[in-house]
Design a protein that fits this description.
heterotrimer; A alpha/beta (493); B mainly alpha (324); C mainly alpha (322); A: 493 residues; alpha/beta; Rossmann fold; 2 domains; six-stranded mixed sheet; 20 helices; C: 322 residues; mainly alpha; two-stranded antiparallel ribbon; globular
Chain lengths: 493, 324, 322
């Protein structure tokens, strides 16, 4: 290993955002002429690592070598000059500029890009078209062609296939193989394990900000990857509640009938009962975002209806949902918190929204104090919520509704990127909410949460509820496979 | 993701439609003006010369807003260069006046670059920085020329404004810098960087646009145009006027014209033709009212209503466009 | 886990202490330069010009806290004062009410356009300013024709003295300023103003009617400007169309110096008061020194910029951001 000069090598790269640790220590090596997969669950640190490798972010500590020489990228342009060229998840072409202008912006030869597009068997668009007018898949391919035109030593592809139809994905694989034959390297980030089997030579798995396994794909197989992604963390603290809970017997709190948004979401029906935690499991972009937005009253439904305790919601404004007792905790804490305000103001927001007049200080102090105590929120940095750790921020986002009161709590991927201890506190909290006779609807991308917290689980696929099963029967590995679109998605249903 | 792309697509088509609508509105105003008070070459000359300084300021504001910023000091910069040039040019020969004009233009670009640098480096919002520098520039103007006065060479006035009912010189004087800047903006990577910066700071960064340089360039171009505005004011009035109110009014009009002309205040979108046409349209409204026997003092109010309504309707159209 | 109690009041902001220091230094410098500055008459004069600025800047602070801005405050103040002056014959109380009604209408129009129709605040208030200028210019010759002589009561309120250095208008300001501070800190509406400025989307998802809050803010801002305009008119005795024009930029500057972010969500009225005091003491000092208007403006601009810069530096250092 020592003799060959790695195309890319990192040693103990670490990064934290304020109190939140994104990367603890990552050692990664990509050899010349290799397609290397970078894998990991949500919040494992993949995107942070990619940003560091491409000059978007600077690491707090650790070393990066490209072609055997230590580097410290100052910007994406700098990384590109060193031969590391990324294609990001979001199209990097500016929609207001034409294709030709976009290429001029990065100093890319138009002829070169045309050539690459032809190599990929694509009909090049008119370069005088504004980039924003081109179809999305073609934009991604243009992005790729532009990256290739810079003749990178290391091509970094960040979930490029996520939004591509399969014939385009095949072309991307062909490009990757050609790059390998020409002696170049590819770092390939994906959620789809099938693709790893198909094109990658080696794979590195990240978990909780560390590299936990690097192996040759042909020798490992998907079981090894899945095992590495899950880890062997003890699942203590919360009893497998779902297994003990009986089928829901409480009254129907929330009833959804044939709900659709006129777009991705189609004819969704289900009911949430008092005393129940109902899980929602889905791949990315199967309509779960739309479902939660509709339920929270953030958008109006195109068809179907939502009823809370038998009363129909019109979906005009989130206020209506809140008044009927339906509260949303979004996954992105940026959508929930007032970053510059205190813990107290954040927790008391629903109270303030209800009454414009003088604040009832005693009532507020009592309610807020009780919630801080119940959730064990760390109040050392209470003057500005943005200075709290990710876990504490999430507790504030949930705690707000304990202060404000609710019947149905909508939790969207609540535990993404927070530490294990806090996760377990949150699980316990959700269970106790259900035991109070209220209901929780939670979408989670972390599948082992389903048997741990939920009573039942819905699987969404293509904007519909594809199936429903008792959480106790929802085997984690099976759900993971389904969520990665490998196989057996139908069996789940 | 799909939705964003589609919104962007719509916005592009809408922007072109917007420029078309601006042109159409202008032509309509011209027709009304022609009917109610005539619109001969003298009228055109009056229109172009009396809005020349404002036209430069609007171009300046346009470039800066496209780059994602705003400059509330363009009027003050104009006043400063008006006073500076009027004082220096008084009693000088034509040749000296031209040299002074060249020097002033260069100085304008430097002032603008300095403003851009301060905004980028300090982290103080652009509105605040330019509000403060506005005070500084109008103070300097008073320092240079404490009371209205100064002068310039007659040939310089003729060069800028034309003679008799000639309207080509001022039109060319506005179009040439406008076209050069348009070329720089759309054809060079430095100029495209300005669009990119205003369009999406993050994406521009990922594409490798040097943000600092793009921002400083935008403000430098703005400063240069403001200096041209000051010189135009000197030529138009034959002297300098240090009073700050004229500058403030001009600043506000430049912002309004930029928005009416189809440049999004959020940056990254729009051209330079629309804003100039918008300036002329705003000039025509009170002129028509006067010709029609309406108290021209209402002109201000009507201008205000037009600005608000156009922006409101534009906003509603955009919202509906997003829904469908 | 020790104290799990949430504090009732936030800690005193260190940046505010810097402002107090700057103000104290300016007052001292003024006292040294001009022996008369600390006399009752001079202090009275300083307060007399500070109060209207502090009121207008208070409204500006509200708008900025929500992430907006109101560039029509100066014309709103002028219009309110003008109407009060012209309508003096209707009786003092009615004249004042009519002036305030002007403010109310302007605020409502601004607020609805900005909050409901989502017109950019800068453009809307700019347009409003132009509309008011036009209407007043015409009105002064037609439907608002007549002498603008402020009622006696208003003149006493705007320029009279209670005792020693205390002018009557300070009383008005104590009342409204106290209301503002209390309103921002201890009412639901105040919390919501910070909430929508800090994170509009989060506020919406928490069930806040963002548009209503915004309308309330622009109405409050216009009403404060109207009161300030009437006071300014009272000080001078009569009203012309340039009455409050010079207050526009200082109102923004006072809020900014006082640490209110133009992007919304952080700041407060206490800082704005300090900002207004700093600006008017500075103004007095430059007047006393008999400094050229030119130098005055240059200094004024420079100080606003430097203070804003320093404020951003200190608040960044505090939170550890770069």
């Amino acid at each position: 290993m020592g003799e060959t000069r790695e195309a890319l090598r990192t040693r103990a790269v670490a990064k934290r955002y304020g109190p939140v640790v994104a990367l603890r220590s990552v050692d990664l090596s990509v050899r010349p002429g290799e397609i290397h997969a970078l894998l990991g669950a949500n919040g494992a640190g993949k995107s942070t690592l990619v940003k560091i490798l491409t000059g978007v972010l600077a690491p707090d500590s650790g070393e990066i070598e490209v072609g055997g020489r230590p580097v410290a990228f100052r910007s994406p342009a700098d990384a590109r000059r060193h031969g590391v060229t990324p294609v990001f998840q979001d199209p990097a072409l500016l929609p207001d500029l034409t294709v030709a202008e976009n290429l001029r912006l990065t100093g890319t030869g138009a002829a070169d890009v045309l050539e690459r597009l032809r190599e990929m068997d694509l009909t090049p668009p008119d370069f005088r078209t504004p980039a924003g007018e081109l179809p999305l898949p073609l934009l991604r391919m243009l992005d790729l062609a532009r990256a290739l035109a810079h003749r990178p030593a290391l091509l970094v592809l960040d979930e490029i296939t996520a939004a591509l139809p399969s014939d385009y994905a095949e072309r991307v694989f062909a490009v990757m193989r050609r790059t390998r034959e020409a002696g170049g390297s590819v770092l390939f980030i994906t959620h789809r394990l099938l693709e790893v089997q198909e094109v990658c030579d080696r794979a590195t798995v990240l978990r909780d900000g560390r590299d936990v396994d690097t192996h040759v794909v042909a020798e490992g197989g998907e079981d090894r990857i899945v095992a590495a992604m899950l880890g062997d963390k003890a699942v203590g603290a919360v009893p497998a509640a779902g297994s003990t809970a009986a089928r829901p017997t409480g009254e129907k709190l929330l009833e959804v009938t044939d709900l659709g948004d006129g777009g991705r979401l189609k004819d969704v029906s289900f009911a949430l009962h008092a005393g129940e935690v109902l899980g929602v499991v889905a791949l990315e972009g199967q309509g779960q975002d739309e479902l939660f937005e509709l339920l929270a009253g953030d958008r109006r439904a195109a068809s179907g209806e939502v009823a809370v305790r038998g009363r129909r919601l019109a979906g005009r404004h989130p206020r209506e949902a809140v008044r009927h007792g339906v509260a949303l905790v979004p996954s992105d804490r940026q959508e929930a918190l007032l970053p510059m305000r205190s813990v107290r103001e954040n927790l008391a927001l629903p109270l303030s929204g209800r009454r414009w007049g003088p604040i009832r200080l005693n009532e507020e102090r009592r309610k807020v104090g009780a919630v801080i105590e119940r959730l064990e929120i760390d109040t050392r940095a209470q003057d500005e919520v943005r200075r709290l750790s990710g876990g504490n921020q999430q507790k504030v986002a949930i705690g707000r509704w304990l202060v404000g009161g609710f019947d149905v709590l909508l939790c969207f991927d609540l535990t993404r990127g927070i530490d294990v201890g806090t996760k377990h506190q949150i699980y316990a909290l959700l269970r106790s909410i259900a035991e109070d006779g209220r209901g929780v609807l939670m979408f989670t991308s972390e599948l082992r949460e389903v048997p741990m917290v939920c009573d039942r689980a819905l699987v969404m696929y293509g904007g519909r509820v594809a199936g429903e099963l008792p959480a106790a029967e929802a085997d984690e590995g099976m759900l993971l496979n389904a969520a990665h679109g490998l196989t057996r998605a139908e069996e789940v249903g | 993701m799909q939705a964003t792309t589609m919104a962007a697509t719509g916005s592009m088509a809408r922007r072109q439609a917007w420029t078309g609508a601006t042109l159409l509105a202008f032509l309509l105003l011209v027709a009304v003006k022609a009917q109610s008070g005539g619109f001969d070459s003298f009228e055109i000359q009056t229109m172009v010369t009396s809005t020349l300084a404002l036209g430069y300021l609007t171009l300046a504001q346009g470039v800066i807003v496209i780059g994602g910023g705003i400059d509330l000091s363009v009027g003050a910069q104009m006043v400063l260069f008006n006073c500076l040039s009027a004082r220096l040019m008084e009693g000088r020969s034509f040749g000296t006046c031209l040299l002074i004009a060249a020097g002033a233009t260069l100085a304008g670009a430097l002032l603008g670059a300095l403003t851009g640098l301060v905004i980028a480096r300090s982290g103080v919002p652009d509105i605040i920085v330019t509000l403060a520098t506005g005070f500084v520039w109008s103070g300097l103007a008073l320092f240079v020329l404490p009371t209205p006065g100064g002068g310039t060479a007659l040939e310089f006035q003729t060069l800028v404004l034309g003679s008799g009912t000639e309207f080509w010189p001022p039109l060319v004087g506005l179009a040439v810098p406008g076209l050069i800047i348009w070329y720089v903006l759309r054809r060079t990577s430095a100029g495209l960087g300005i669009y990119a910066l205003g369009s999406d700071r993050q994406a521009a960064f990922l594409a490798g646009v040097p943000a600092l340089r793009a921002q400083v360039t935008a403000y430098a171009i703005g400063g240069l145009l403001c200096a041209l505005g000051g010189l135009a004011a000197t030529a138009f009035t034959g002297g300098g006027d240090p009073r700050a109110t004229a500058g403030m009014t001009a600043t506000l009009t430049s912002v309004a014209a930029v928005v009416l002309g189809g440049i999004a205040l959020t940056g990254g979108v729009g051209g330079l033709l629309g804003p100039v046409v918008a300036v002329w349209s705003l000039y025509l409204i009170p002129a028509i009212m006067l010709a029609r026997g309406v108290d021209p003092a209402y002109g201000e109010a009507v201008k205000g209503v037009v600005i608000v309504l156009v922006v409101l309707i534009g906003g509603l159209l955009r919202r509906n466009g997003r829904k469908t | 886990m020790t104290a799990v109690r949430a504090r009732d009041w936030p800690k005193v902001d260190r940046s505010l202490l810097v402002l107090v220091g700057v103000l104290a230094a300016l007052v001292l410098a003024n006292g040294v330069i001009d022996q008369g500055f600390l006399s009752a008459a001079q202090l009275r004069n300083t307060l007399l010009v500070t109060v209207p600025l502090a009121l207008i800047a208070g409204g500006q602070t509200l708008c900025m806290l929500t992430g907006g801005i109101d560039l029509s405050v100066a014309m709103t103040a002028t219009a309110a004062a003008y109407v009060t002056g012209v309508r003096a014959a209707d009786g003092t109380a009615l004249a004042i009410l009519e002036g305030l009604a002007v403010g109310l209408v302007i605020g409502l129009v601004n607020g609805v356009a900005i909050a409901v129709f989502r017109v950019n605040a800068l453009i809307m208030t700019l347009g409003m300013s132009a509309i008011l200028t036009g209407l007043l210019t015409v009105g002064s010759q037609t439907f608002l024709k007549g002498a603008t002589r402020m009622p006696e009561f208003v003149r006493e309120l705007g320029g009279g003295t209670i005792v020693g250095p205390i002018p009557w208008n300070l009383l008005v300001w104590l009342l409204l300023g106290g209301l503002l501070i209390f309103g921002l800190r201890r009412t639901g509406l105040g919390r919501l103003i910070y909430a929508i400025g800090g994170n509009r989307r989060a506020a919406r998802l928490a069930g806040v009617r963002v548009a209503s809050v915004e309308v309330a803010v622009y109405v409050a801002c216009a009403l404060l400007a109207a009161v300030a305009g009437i006071l300014i008119g009272g000080r001078g005795g009569s009203v012309d169309l340039q009455l409050a024009g010079s207050y526009l930029l200082p109102s923004v500057a006072a809020a900014v110096i006082g640490g209110t972010s133009i992007l919304g969500g952080s700041g407060g009225y206490t800082g704005t008061i300090l900002g207004a005091l700093i600006l008017s003491v500075l103004d007095t000092m430059l007047n006393v020194l008999n400094v050229d208007e030119a130098v005055k403006q240059v200094l004024y601009g420079t100080i606003v910029l430097v203070l804003a810069w320093v404020y951003i530096r200190t608040s960044r250092a505090r939170t550890g951001d770069r």
